[in-house]
Design the sequence.
């Protein structure tokens, strides 16, 4: 039992560290894109080429597992397909939002996505995970901080 | 409807789309590795974005210089094998709620890098914002 608990704890730590590294990676992407790619190609073209090369990288990374994973239920592929479509729609809607509203309006509203995710998790994933009041409070604090950083950067 | 109101609505749609994508990823990755899951999510995302790009910017799609392609490869490497794969790994192992809360801090990492490499100035508002994000992340991490 102790071993199982240790294993679960280790997986959670790996998950949290992964999410933190992902945030840093996305932050780096935004900085690089802003300083180099902006003005070179339209957003849809940049997104298409970037996803294309990303697919090639991920194909090689998944080579070890793909044979086993092909035996997964069809529902799992459908879910991952929908995850990809919704993630891409998210990027497309955010680019469209930024072309209509100032970054000081669009970015903080876009940053509410963790709170929406928590609400959806509470409604649809109760069997898989629990949303605590501390998680919601922490996310509200993150949202507040992110809004301050965005306002500080783009309003001088 | 004013442009700002339309933009705000679109940003809310973006937030809802990302959150919904995270829920689908959590369910899908119960049965497969994060690498395979990320790969399949990219296939559908690619088809969708390709159709939009061909419809909106057909000529620009094939008028990209070799130098720009190299930058796209670098961006792709940071965005997908690092960004999305690690994001999905976080969702798989830590759960949707903590992973998306942590990912919400992305603009702060972007600001820190801009301060370090693009010469942007740190103001009181930015400093306080970063502190609030660190405190919020500590709450999420501690309770996870």
Sequence:
């Amino acid at each position: 039992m102790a071993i199982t608990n240790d294993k679960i704890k280790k997986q959670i730590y790996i998950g949290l560290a992964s999410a933190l590294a992902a945030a840093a990676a996305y932050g780096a992407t935004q900085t690089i894109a802003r300083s180099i790619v902006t003005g070179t190609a339209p957003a849809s073209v940049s997104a298409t080429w970037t996803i294309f090369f990303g697919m090639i990288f991920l194909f090689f990374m998944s080579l070890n597992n793909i044979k086993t994973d092909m035996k997964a239920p069809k529902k799992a592929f459908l879910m991952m397909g929908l995850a990809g479509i919704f993630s891409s729609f998210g990027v497309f809607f955010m680019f469209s939002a930024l072309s209509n509203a100032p970054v000081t309006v669009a970015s903080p509203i876009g940053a509410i996505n963790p709170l929406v995710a928590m609400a959806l998790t509470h409604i649809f994933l109760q069997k898989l995970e629990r949303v605590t009041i501390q998680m919601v409070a922490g996310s509200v604090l993150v949202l507040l901080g992110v809004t301050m950083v965005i306002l500080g950067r783009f309003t001088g | 409807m004013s442009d700002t109101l339309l933009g705000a609505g679109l940003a809310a749609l973006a937030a809802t789309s990302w959150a919904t994508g995270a829920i689908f990823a959590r369910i899908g990755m119960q049965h497969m590795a994060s690498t395979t899951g990320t790969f399949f999510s990219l296939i559908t995302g690619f088809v969708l974005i390709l159709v939009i790009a061909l419809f909106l910017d057909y000529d620009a799609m094939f008028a990209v210089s070799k130098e720009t392609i190299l930058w796209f490869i670098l961006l792709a490497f940071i965005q997908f094998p690092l960004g999305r794969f690690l994001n999905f790994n976080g969702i798989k192992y830590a759960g949707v709620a903590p992973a998306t809360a942590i990912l919400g801090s992305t603009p702060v990492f972007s600001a820190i890098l801009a301060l370090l490499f693009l010469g942007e100035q740190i103001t009181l508002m930015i400093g306080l914002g970063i502190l609030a994000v660190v405190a919020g992340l500590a709450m999420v991490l501690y309770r996870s």
Chain B is about 85% helix and 0% strand.
